[in-house]
Amino acid sequence: MEFSARPLFSDVSFVVNPKERIALVGKNGAGKSTLLKIIAGIQNPTGGVVARQKDVTVAYLPQVMVLSDSCTVMEEAEKAFEHISEMQLRIQKLNDQLAERTDYESQEYMDLVEKFTHENERFDLMGGQNYHAELERTLVGLGFRKEDFNRPTSEFSGGWRMRIELAKLLLQKPDLLLLDEPTNHLDIGSIQWLEQFIAQRANAVILVSHDRAFINNVTNRTIEITCGHINDYKVKYDQYVVLRDERREQQLRAYENQQKEIAETKAFIEKFRYKPTKSNQVQSRMKALEKMQLVEVDDIDTSHLNLKFPKCQRSGDFPVICDEVRKTYGNHLVFDHVNLTIKRGEKVAFVGNNGEGKSTLVKCIMDEIPFDGQLKVGHNVQIGYFAQNQAQLLDPDITVFDTIDRVATGDMRTKVRDILGAFMFGGEASDKFVKVLSGGERSRLAMIRLLLEPVNFLILDEPTNHLDMQSKDVLKRAVKDFDGTVIVVSHDRDFLDGLVDRVYEFADGKVREHIGGIYDFLEMKRMENEGLTGVGENVNARTEPQKTGGQELLQEKEVKANDGALSYEQQKELAKIKRKAEKRVKDAEQLIEQLEQQIAEIEEKMTTPEGASDVSLFTRHAEIKAKLSEAEDEWEEASIQLEEMG
Q1: Tell me: the pLDDT tens digits for 143-180?
Q2: How many CB atoms neighbour CB 324 within 10 A?
């Protein structure tokens, strides 16, 4: 495939097998979205073919699509089952024909009965009787409430309408599902639901995503587009990163050796070019140079750009204090009785379903909208605010470079090009005028500008939506090293992990505080849903939280445990589980020992001259190390389970 004279990729060949979950990765502009469109049949390749088995169905969710607003949420979602509705009509017609006829012994009547039976069986197999229940489960899983089902789609934002389109694709159960950045418009709960759906119910999947946690949880194969070709790794993303780095090290060594060989060959040719006695050798080496297949090094930016916020005055001890804050829009209550205090230097996350009030509370803090109650912004607080609409405040008549150059100070002025490159504005892109940028590009530019402003309180509303993984890493390091206060509104678990130490959950008009990181919060929610623990502290009320059903259940279990010994059947079951855990630990220990022995043997071979140049040894070494890591994880999990059983 190529645009103008520059090929995006060539000689790309791979097979998608049933139940495979493939992550398509590569730097921005490598051709990931283009390849999805080619597979979907929306775009034609410049050369080659995409071969599909007969009757294979393919469904494609692009990043941006034209959405219709002519019906309700339920009516739009039901379009996924148009084939079932058509089948229902056919069955009804056949049934009417059977009711009208009386020639019960004729061949035509028997053929009609057979056709009716066949269509009815197909209808049942396709879930014709219960598709409404599945449709409702899918819409609820993607964040809709039942009261939303009969609302017109025109009342929803573009992000919510994209969820309806995603629901339609999932409900069609295609043989191959193509997803381009599916998590951009989802909250954490919906992302986790989608992960579970893909893992348990989807057929083959190819997806493009910059959500590291999502692709790690969903995919089992990684196809990388680099230097115009693909590398196929039969592992999930995190393992691919390790193998890719090792592969690149091998390429660099091979490249350096080849360059040395080329230099020596050229030196020999120059030295003996005019000596008749060496003419045959010179000619031979010149031909060898012409035939030499040059080693390519994968186009991966391994540089680590560290951004530091400019120094700013110290703020007061409590940058934000909310006291009985309440917000309504007409008769709609967004939240009520919000009481929270954020201390200087804290980094906290606002999480919850879209529409629950996260961005609304941020706007209250920014004094952009009216509210009831008391909200105090502390002494000497200088806020740096990022939201999607911040991009509209950029000067459209200057270039990308000038936008950043005008706010950069000190050492950062010498790094403007590097900073722009880290956020996908490398090369000629830095000379574009702001007015020609897309919405996503403007958002990235607004983010860079914010990073260079002297502030002591950062508020970031969905900062990672238009960033690739490298850009997110740069931003995360900068925010992590920032010594001021931070509020992050985000659904990106990998970005929040290790960044925040307190989570505020927005749900049902309430705001609850959870101490700990994002995965502590998610584990608490999981246990809460299973009835194993209570909810987080409710910061909407000053009174002590009431005992929840989960806490009562836990106490009831404790009482029963204290009342007497376990029954014989319970003891048997516990012993059985314990034996399984012991076996898991033992098997894992044996596997770890075997793998460590294999690694030691390979590493010994790698120290020899022959081994040092054997690329297959390095590949094998990386594969076994990946298996060792998995075995160690298995041992740790089994050991913890065994320890908890006493």
Answers
A1: 888 889 998 988 887 788 889 989 988 888 888 999 99
A2: 15
pLDDT at 512 over 70: yes
Please indicate whether residue 627 or residue 319 has the higher confidence score (pLDDT).
Answer: 319
Distance of CA 441 to CAs 481, 536, 638, Å?
Answer: 25, 38, 46
Q: Residue 156 in 3-state DSSP?
A: coil
Distance CA 459, CA 464 (A): 13
Which tokens hold the place of 102? Answer: 């009386």
8 A C-beta contact, residue 225 and residue 9: yes
Kindly report the number of other CB atoms within 10 A of residue 520's CB atom.
14
How far apart CA 98 and CA 232 sit, in angstroms, is: 56
**Closest residue by Cα to residue 487 from 448, 449, 457:** 457
Helices (H), 44-187: 73-77, 82-100, 107-125, 131-141, 158-172
87 CB burial (10 A radius; 0-12, 13-18, 19+): middle
Token pair in block for residue 80: 């996924």
Give the burial class of 73: count Cβ atoms within 10 A of its Cβ; 0-12 exposed, 13-18 middle, 19 or more buried: buried
- 341: number of Cβ within 10 Å: 16
pTM summary value? 0.69
* Angstrom distance (rounded) from CA 25 to CA 37: 15
Angle at 154 between CA 165 and CA 438, to 5 degrees: 70
**Helices then strands (H, E): number in the chain?**
21, 18
Q: Rg for the chain (alpha carbons), in Å?
A: 30
Overall average pLDDT of the 124-140 stretch: 74
Residue type, 78: E
